[in-house]
Specification:
The complex is a heterodimer of chains A (about 140) and B (about 525). Chain A is mostly helical and about 140 residues long. Chain A is built from four helices and three strands, in the order αααβαββ. In chain A, helix 1 packs across helix 3. Chain B is of the alpha+beta class. Chain B is elongated. Classes of the chains: A mainly alpha (about 140), B alpha+beta (about 525). Strand 3 of chain A pairs antiparallel with strand 11 of chain B, so a sheet runs across the interface.
């Protein structure tokens, strides 16, 4: 699911190689590779680590898999954004039914201080591409 | 319903610049001084046109306000909403983002958002959608916030507010700011930064609490306008009960100061980069931050109904009827103010002052009900005497040692002319002590009753006239202001127990002098 979500985001982000969907049912030509800039941006945003060429290849394959959607003719069809669109959104009554389980929640915390979760100080931004040890540097 | 977080109504200030309106496009040559477009009294002022001859830059302020919804439980889970509880005690498995948990929408939060949208004259979207907004932070365990980015619950409204254009608070002008949208979203947890141990402590009690984000268009020109708009929004939210809208005053003040110091406030959170030795932008909303919005896959669209579209055979509890909510909206502050002005004949500024203080309007109305004194006269006592005392001692109306009943009692004595205005103030001072004495008891104790014996008063007046030869001469010569001195002397003689109006009349009669009738206070 995660790879698909990333793939979806990447497809939206990069400039399409050719025209948009809905014009026919033929296999799309092989796509250009995802650029290093995009990969670096992704590593920053999603804190994934592509680690090696196999990781990048996996992303590439996921994109190609999603590109199959181009085969479908969607002329005049409203885009669907949720398979739940025909379902009723259940509304819950405003009652307190949960909570009060501090001990259970903290059970799995590696570090805690007086019932607080402990996290590193603030967000430590990923160093720039040139400054970090990643295989993307060589690309 | 006790969510009283100081952060309950936090704002993000967006300050930008746009070309001044009302000045015709690029002009030839420099602008003469008088024609520079200045939108308002912003201390930053307008930047001069410069060589380009284009219209000068005018500052604009847009606001995004997050108001915590007043509800028993959270937006998508059943854990309690409460201020100041032991850390991580109001957290459900969903709030902690444990795997296998799902969001379930709280009906009350939707109603609160609809109410607020209607009060701000928005169009309510009968179908709105939920999205995920992704970013990493310790107090956001899921790594995303559920919000409404594509289609929010309400759009295109407006908020009217008033502000004083002079320092005397006597001239008010009404302005309007457009409301772009209102969306439902989750609040994040709270981070406590422990710099000594280089760690952050996370409390998720607030994580998942429902928020209404009210987005205003950049229609305001300066900090003063923004503050007035926020104040009015605060009053509206409190009246609706959709949010307690408690915002620490210092936060408003701090942000106004920052704006007026000419800075452009980037809404950003900064982190310390130990290698670079300085702070770096972390969550820069204007820049490269990419939230990778995607539809929330676990929530179908939110459908709202009105009288016409009401489905026939659906469980009532599952249906939200916009019209039903509209019919039950309470009187908004602007309506309440109009009613006060109309009913009691007070000035608009008075109505603002009454509504600005919690419980003061009811207090005033209660006093009016229990006294024969005219409402126009009562307002002075409530706003000048009572309110100033409360402010001096940092008391709320509820904590006032002087109840509306006591004040009405006092004002009745004044109305019946049993005591003078000065005496009434003295009684009030005594009443503040809250010793349980009635006004009448205090009057008797301190012998403040007005002299009712006309003859005695006449005698005293005559005595004063006889003593003050110089003043009498001056008055007879035409300097009528000196009469006030004689009145003062009579007052002193009677220990403040004479009716100054009556004294004046007596003195004038004796001196055979007529003065213009001054309006009685």
């Amino acid at each position: 699911m995660r790879a698909l979500a990333l793939a979806r985001w990447v497809r939206a982000w990069r400039v399409p190689v050719r025209g948009h969907s809905g014009h026919g049912a033929h296999r799309p030509p092989p796509q250009q590779k995802v650029s290093v800039e995009v990969l670096d941006h992704l590593e920053h945003l999603a804190l994934v680590d592509f680690r090696d060429s196999e990781g990048v290849e996996r992303l590439q394959k996921a994109i190609e898999f999603a590109d199959q959607l181009h085969e479908v003719n969607t002329d005049g069809v409203e885009p669907m954004d949720s398979v739940l669109e025909d379902r009723c959104l259940y509304l819950r009554e405003d009652e307190v039914t949960e909570g009060n389980c501090t001990k259970e929640l903290l059970q799995n915390a590696r570090e805690k201080v007086e019932e607080y979760f402990v996290a590193p100080p603030g967000n430590i931004p990923l160093p720039k591409l040139e400054e970090r040890d990643t295989f993307l540097q060589g690309s | 319903m006790a969510a009283m977080a100081a952060r309950a109504c936090g704002g993000a200030w967006r300050r930008g610049w746009q070309r001044g309106r009302g000045v015709p496009g690029p002009a030839l040559g420099p602008f003469p001084r008088g024609q520079r477009a200045v939108a308002c009294n912003a201390r930053g002022g307008a930047v001069p046109a410069g060589k380009s001859g284009l219209a000068p830059w005018v500052p604009v302020v847009g606001l995004e306000i997050h108001a915590q919804i007043s509800s028993n439980s959270k937006l998508f889970s059943g854990s309690q909403v409460q201020f100041a509880a032991p850390p991580n005690s109001l957290v459900s498995f969903f709030d902690a983002s444990l795997p296998g948990t799902l969001p379930v929408l709280n009906r009350r939060c939707v109603e609160a958002a609809v109410m607020t949208g209607l009060a701000l004259k928005c169009s309510i979207n009968k179908k709105s959608l939920f999205d995920r907004k992704h970013y990493f932070y310790a107090d956001l365990p899921a790594g995303y916030q559920i919000t409404q980015q594509r289609v929010p619950i309400a759009v295109n409204g407006s908020l009217s507010y008033s502000l004083c254009i002079d320092s005397k608070m006597s001239q008010m002008v009404t302005k309007t700011v457009r409301i772009k949208q209102i969306q439902l979203e989750q609040d994040s947890g709270k981070s406590l930064h422990d710099d000594t141990r280089s760690q952050t402590l996370v409390d998720l009690n607030r994580a998942g609490v429902g928020l209404m984000e009210v987005v205003m268009e950049p229609d305001m020109c300066c900090g003063e306008e923004a503050a007035a708009a926020v104040r009015e929004l605060q009053l509206i939210l409190q009246t609706l009960g959709s949010s307690q809208a408690v915002m620490a005053d210092y936060e408003i003040q701090r942000q106004i100061e920052e704006l007026e110091n000419g800075g452009t406030i980037l809404n950003e959170t900064r982190a310390f980069d130990s290698k670079l030795g300085c702070t770096v932008p972390m969550r820069d909303k204007e820049g490269k931050q990419d939230y990778r919005f995607m539809p929330e896959p676990n929530l179908p669209p939110l459908i709202l109904y009105d009288a016409k579209s009401l489905p026939a055979n659906m469980n009532h509890q599952q249906v939200i009827n916009i019209d039903w909510i509209h019919e039950r909206l309470p009187d908004l502050p602007s309506v309440k103010r109009e009613k006060l002005v109309e009913q009691y004949g007070i000035l608009p500024e008075h109505s603002f002052a009454l509504l600005n203080e919690d419980g003061l309007a009811e207090f005033y109305e209660n006093v009016v009900k229990q006294t024969r004194m005219k409402p126009k006269r009562v307002i002075g006592w409530v706003l000048n005497n009572l309110l100033s005392y409360l402010k001096q001692h940092s008391l709320t109306v509820k904590e006032s040692p002087v109840s509306s009943f006591l004040l009405a009692d006092l004002l009745n004595l004044l109305e019946k002319k049993e005591i003078s205005s000065t005496a009434a103030k003295q009684v009030l001072v005594e009443l503040w002590k809250g010793e349980g004495k009635t006004p009448l008891e205090i009057v008797k104790e301190q012998k403040l009753q007005l002299l009712q014996d006309q003859k005695e008063l006449e005698q005293i007046c005559q005595a004063v006239i006889d003593r003050q030869e110089n003043e009498v001469m001056a008055i007879k010569a035409g300097n009528l202001k000196v009469l006030n001195k004689l009145i003062g002397l009579v007052q002193r003689e009677t220990q403040g127990r004479s009716n100054p109006v009556l004294v004046k009349q007596l003195l004038e009669k004796k001196l055979e002098v007529a003065t213009r009738e001054k309006p009685h206070k």
